[in-house]
Design brief:
Shape: flat
Number of domains: 3
Helix content: 55-70%
Strand content: under 5%
């Protein structure tokens, strides 16, 4: 089951109401030109609305619908001309009777040729602000070309250039008493086009323009300017599907010199609003709508879009979508009653929809494309597990819940993954505690216990906590999770995964990150590494427990901490983990040489002054001290300004102390 991301005429979002409203608006005044905008975020369903509009006009012979995809014309020399010619050519192709109206067709194409003059003559850009070049401008260009003929070596052949000049001059000649100035040429094009519609028997031409928000700024603007040419042409309507924010961005990029007295954003918005007379915005899906959409997607993928039982279910869903604020999602009883003997094939879809629908609505902000992408990734990962031979270890609801965290709360996912990968049983105890707290009823929540004194004399616990205690008691990480409403909402998703071995799920998520590299080597030491990345005061208390590590274990921990510091690639200020390294080396002095190697390998041009101090009581061996002094001397000569000052200052202090 893979969900396609193409536009569709099967309405699972109840957007048919928008399409129906637009069709009625267009048919109310077919003789009047109008431009309608269908706006929405990328993936909101704009293309599907255009498909429904086109399908709605199929039975009306006097209405002609033409579709134009701006993205497909990306890279064409002139998207504006491409759209104009595409409209005229589409009209002629779909109305064969026009072949008998030869002169009318030729007249329209002569007008289009006139619009091409700027490109032929000198590559001028005619925009919404400058208009189409005047004949005087073009005549000047022709004069320039004629001057070039004095040096034919600059061109392919003299005959070719003369031919081009003759073509341009021919377009500028006055015919039948008409003047070739800009306003009259534009009006003449509109009259010729209107005559073409009349001869074709078209009462209304509806042009559907899609995917402008995928185009580069120049293509998007040229397409909109072609629409502008038709804005006052009777019987012609445009429906433009685009994300408003992307069009505003295109306006700012295409016209970088916009006056900024009121801000470019205002002018960009005005440009769009002057062109789009009637805007429609596709609303985001809410909780109930998302759950219904997910259910229909999954059942449709199982039964097929043409299945009669599935189409009956769509009808039931549409009734509920009319009033989603009072109706619930598609419950199992309704689905079974509607699907009949096919209901058993929908059980997984219903369960999955109930489990992930609410938080998926929040995470995707109700965006249909994001919902489809999530579901596709979910199914592909499950199939990957099956192909690798451990499909029985991967339960779809558990995988879905983890992926919700991966997609919408990535920091939480990384924290869970690191803990589960390091645990011998693949479980995350903090996760189980989080789920228990998030799903507990108010009366079941434990009351706060009074603080216990730590010591015979009742003094507060000043001694450093044991490493084992820090790891096994309620952690600061759990407190962080519980303080986040988004994380609590995720934890409350019905499927409880805190007691599950999460390693199979992390393995199928390796396309994002490999969580087993360090964990498989470090094992139980991964928790020690995490502790060494705590605050300075916290790590100071770990020295006694670190001394219990065997030398090979200490070396492993050192390499893990060093690798994470280097991987962060930020050395202008003291990086997390540096204080932990100092405490580790105080507990295991044999690592002093490894510390000097680490410091020497840091990039001097990006190294801050922190590296010069803080090693008192850490670097003690005579050989290590000498190596560190030489390193300070190197930093004092070759480092950045702040590093030089700090290194020389530390050297003077050390020499004075000796």
């Amino acid at each position: 089951m893979i969900l396609t991301d193409n536009e569709t005429k099967v309405d699972l979002l109840n957007n048919e109401a928008i399409a129906t409203t637009i069709i009625k608006l267009l048919r109310d005044r077919p003789d009047q030109p109008v431009t309608i905008g269908v706006h929405g975020d990328w993936g909101a369903g704009k293309s599907s609305v255009l498909e429904m509009i086109e399908a709605g006009f199929d039975t009306e012979p006097k209405v002609l619908c033409l579709k134009f995809n701006g993205w497909r014309f990306q890279g064409f020399e002139d998207a504006k001309i491409a759209l104009i010619e595409g409209i005229v050519t589409g009209l002629i192709e779909k109305r064969p009777a026009l072949t008998r109206a030869g002169e009318a067709v030729k007249d329209v194409f002569r007008r289009i040729d006139w619009l091409k003059v700027a490109k032929k003559a000198g590559g001028l850009a005619f925009t919404a602000f400058t208009g189409i070049p005047t004949p005087d401008q073009i005549t000047a260009i022709i004069g320039t070309l004629e001057g070039i003929l004095a040096d034919p070596a600059t061109l392919a052949t003299k005959d070719n250039v003369q031919s081009a000049i003759d073509d341009v001059k021919g377009l500028l000649k006055e015919k039948d008493g008409e003047s070739a100035n800009v306003p009259e040429e534009i009006n003449a094009f509109r009259r010729a086009f209107d005559s073409l519609l009349e001869k074709a028997g078209v009462e209304q031409l509806v042009v559907l323009i899609d995917d402008l928000d995928r185009c580069l700024p120049d293509t998007a603007i040229e397409t909109l300017e072609a629409v502008r040419l038709f804005v006052f042409t009777s019987r012609t309507a445009f429906v433009v599907a685009a994300d408003e924010a992307m069009i505003e961005y295109a306006v700012r990029k295409h016209f970088p010199d916009l006056p900024d007295t009121t801000g470019p954003q205002t002018y960009a918005r005005n440009y769009l609003e002057k062109l789009i007379q009637v805007p429609f915005r596709i609303p985001a899906l809410g909780d109930t709508e998302t759950r219904i959409y997910v259910t229909l997607l999954l059942i449709g993928a199982e039964l097929g879009d043409d299945d009669p039982a599935f189409n009956a279910l769509i009808g039931v869903a549409r009734e509920r979508l009319k009033r989603p604020w009072t109706s619930g999602a598609l419950d199992s009883a309704t689905v079974r009653a509607t699907l009949g003997d096919k209901a058993s094939r929908a059980n997984n879809a219903l369960a999955l929809s109930d489990q992930i629908g609410p938080i998926l609505a929040s995470g995707t902000k109700g965006n249909p494309r994001q919902i489809k992408r999530f579901l596709n990734t979910l199914v592909l990962r499950q199939r990957t597990a099956e192909a690798r031979g451990f499909g029985d270890d991967v339960k779809l609801p558990v995988l879905a819940k983890l992926m919700l965290a991966e997609r919408f709360i990535p920091r939480l996912f990384d924290q869970i993954a690191a803990a589960a990968a390091a645990a011998p049983d693949g479980k995350c105890p903090d996760l189980a505690a989080l789920e228990a707290a998030a799903t507990a009823k108010e009366d079941d929540k434990p009351k706060a216990k009074p603080a216990r004194s730590a010591g015979k004399d009742g003094d507060a616990a000043k001694a450093a906590p044991k490493l084992e205690a820090v790891i096994t008691t309620e952690s600061a990480l759990l407190g962080e999770w519980l303080s986040s409403p988004a994380i609590r909402a995720w934890a409350a998703v019905p499927t409880m995964i805190g007691s599950d071995d999460l390693r199979p799920y992390l393995f199928v998520a390796k396309d994002r990150k490999d969580y087993f590299g360090a964990a498989s080597v470090l094992g139980h030491l991964a928790a020690v590494v995490e502790q060494l990345f705590g605050g300075k005061f916290a790590v100071q208390g770990l020295e006694a427990d670190l001394k219990r590590l065997a030398p090979p274990e200490a070396a492993q921990v050192f390499e893990a901490v060093r690798g994470r510091i280097v991987g962060a690639d930020a050395f202008d200020t003291e990086p997390p983990g540096a204080a932990g390294l100092a405490v580790l080396i105080k507990a295991h002095p044999a690592l002093q040489g490894a510390l000097i190697d680490f410091l020497d390998a840091l990039p001097r041009d990006r190294l801050g002054p922190w590296v010069c101090g803080g090693w008192e009581g850490v670097i003690k061996d005579a050989e290590a001290v000498q190596r560190f002094d030489r390193l300070l001397q190197t930093w004092g000569k070759d480092g950045g300004l702040m590093l030089k000052v700090a290194a020389n200052g530390v050297l003077r202090t050390r020499q004075g102390a000796r």
